[in-house]
Description:
This protein is of the alpha+beta class and 401 residues long. It has a domain at 16-26 and 167-282: S-adenosylmethionine synthetase, N-terminal domain (GMP Synthetase, Chain A, domain 3). Helix content is 32%, strand content 27%. The strands form five sheets. Strands 2, 11, 12, 13, 14 and 16 form a six-stranded mixed beta sheet that branches. The protein has a four-stranded mixed beta sheet with strand order 1-18-17-10, covered by helices on one side. Strand 11 (191-202) and strand 12 (205-215) form a beta hairpin. It starts with a strand and ends in a 7-residue tail after the last helix.
Amino acid sequence: MRNILVNDLHRKPIDEQSFEIVERKGLGHPDSICDGIMNSISVELSKEYLNRVGAVLHHNADKSLLVAGETEIRFGGGIIKKPMLLVMGDRATFQIDEVNIPVEEIAVETAKNWIKENLRFVDPEVHVNYQIEFKPGSPELTRIFLKKGILDANDTSAAVGYAPMSKTEELVLNLERYLNSKDFKKRFPETGEDIKVMGLRRNRDLHLTVSMAFVDRFICSEEEYFAKKEEVFYRIQEFLDKSDYFDKITLSLNTLDERGKGISGVYLTVLGTSADGADSGQVGRGNRVNGVIPLNRPVCSEAAAGKNPVSHVGKIYNVLTHKIANDVFNEVSGILEVYIWLLSQIGKPIDEPTIAVAEIIAENNSDINDIKRKVRDIIDYELANIEEFCDSLIRGKFPVY
């Protein structure tokens, strides 16, 4: 019998608390680039292992550093003086029996494809150099993958997920997705993919600070920059006006800008990401697996992106806790908020965590015993069907960035 504990949590849901801080690092942020590429590499490696040997072999593609390049920004279009450097690595299986796996080639090709699909102005053949640092795994960890059926955890790790997302979390996430949508980029091609949204809620008043890279080839002067920035500002405000939850939403955009300083007083990039010449990136420093950085919530310290999807609980439990939390919230009436915790022990089957805990904030007058029973059943069901969940991770169903 699984060790499942369900407790009631005596506090206000996050939306009813007096303040909240939420951050979202957008698609072209250097940290998000690392997360996106490395998770895609894990997906492609998993597919290759399945095609060649019929099983996902040992790998963890969760170490990456995007070293910023060097640019000369100019009104009307700058130049790349030094390309970015993408360092990718950790552990992978290069050979099993007589079968060779082209790990390095898969990593580079996957990185190039991700860049092509997500960063309009970055040429992966020209603007990025690649350094591969994958090495074979330890025999003890590699042995885990030779087991049939449900694998053992390859780490002792804890994860936590929650549901539902708060109104602030939803708006911060949806705003960045809107700003990086095809429709928005078609209307404002001068805006890059490197966008960060920071939300501060005090009661029902929300202040949003948006940082958005502009692309210098579309901007011919300081005056034109501020004119285009104003157009973008009002379009964002129109999007925010659709929200009827908050009493007041205040917006700030590119607050470091200063008129009269020329090129040094505006936020311009050559390629639409600050990684082209200003900021480096790293796996695990970006969004949590539900797409935001929720500073008022408990979060898992593990970087899920790039970890293998069949034995590394740093990925499996990280995503699964959020899935279970959402299932509980959607399927069990009387719950205002739920937190799900899972703790693994290395060498133990991933469907048998050391403990699984649900903490629930229930509505007044709800039947707490009935709620606890239903929550326990959902957790037990999800763990019993963890192989199916891992299959969805293998297919990349959960992008985790």
